[in-house]
Automatic annotation (TrEMBL):
Domain of life: Bacteria
BP terms from Gene Ontology: methylation
GO MF terms, alphabetically ordered: methyltransferase activity
Domain Methyltransferase per the UniProt entry, residue ranges: 50-144
Protein name: Methyltransferase domain-containing protein
Organism: Actinomycetospora endophytica
A Pfam family matched in the record: Methyltransf_25
């Protein structure tokens, strides 16, 4: 823990009440720490339209509006938008932070609607698909920013899951990737210019600090992260801009066909 003279690592987040952060936790990581870290690498200006994709219970959405004056569309699949609306009203931000339940794979916004997309500890659930950058880039203005931050790997696992992580590991953790993986994944799309892809220094310690606060009985995860000591697990961040000189492909929603009757068999 920082001593009294040491400035907090996340000065913006440290102004928020710990009870508010804990009761708004959606699992995973401390959403404010990751949003603050992500915002350090992005240009967020007042009045921008920002999609908070996989916003969970919306603490990151409140934070983005309060800290940067952006309008936020707080989109999530699993969590009730009604609970988020209550949180937004209580925080006095309901005129600028809008809760929606939607699947990131079937968003219905107008093309070019957003100046920026942020996704905190969520992008791994849908963004590893090779075609997803195309899906998402359509909703960004040309040169609009895409930023993600969340749990990930320091380096890609080359071989079996290390012994010290096995009791915690589940098959779905195959979606965790390194910053270098995200850089390559987005560069391959041909639609994004990657500006940053890195790993949080001592991120595993922040991971532990948060787990001990939010879920102190989760010994399996705490023991795994402690044993790992940042060799494999950490927080990764990636920031890119939609290329202005390339148009994303239009999504195929239906192909027109007309039935032509022909004999079924040769004989
Ligand atoms: C670990 S939680 C993180 C939530 C929040 N951003 C935070 O950091 O506390 C992962 C979130 O991803 C969202 N999610 C997963 N798949 C999704 C999808 N296909 N479309 C939209 N959101 C999705 C879930 O609803 C969930 O809230």
């Amino acid at each position: 823990m920082p001593n009294a003279e040491e400035p907090p690592r996340f000065p913006r987040s440290s102004a928020y009440h710990p009870d508010w952060i804990l009761t708004g936790a959606s699992g995973g990581a401390n959403a404010l720490w990751l949003t603050e870290w992500l915002a350090e690498a992005m240009e967020l200006r007042a009045g921008m339209r920002v999609l908070d994709l996989g916003s969970g219970r919306g603490t990151s959405s409140v934070f983005l509006h309060r800290e940067f004056g952006v309008q936020v569309w707080s989109v999530d699949l699993w969590f009730d938008p009604g609970e988020r609306l209550a949180r937004f009203r209580d925080a006095g931000v309901e005129d600028a932070v809008f809760p929606l339940r939607a699947d990131a794979r079937s968003l219905a916004f107008a093309p070019g609607f957003f100046d920026a997309v942020v996704s905190v500890d969520s992008f791994v659930y849908f963004g590893t698909d090779d075609l997803y950058a195309n899906t998402l880039a359509r909703f960004l203005v040309p040169a609009g920013a895409l930023g993600i931050a969340g749990a990930g790997l320091v380096d890609e696992l080359d071989g079996p899951v290390p012994e010290h992580l096995r009791s915690w590991w589940e098959p779905s953790l195959a979606c965790l990737h390194s910053a270098a993986w995200w850089r390559r994944h987005w560069e391959r799309s041909g639609l994004l210019d990657v500006e940053r892809a890195d790993t949080m220094p001592d991120g595993w310690q922040r991971w532990l600090e948060w787990q001990r606060a939010v879920s102190p009985d989760n010994h399996v995860e705490i023991d795994a992260v402690t044993a790992d000591r940042g060799r494999n697990l950490g927080y990764v961040r990636a920031v890119a801009r939609r290329r202005a000189d390339v148009e994303p492909d239009e999504p195929i929603t239906s192909l027109p066909t007309e039935y032509v009757s022909r004999p079924l068999l040769r004989g």
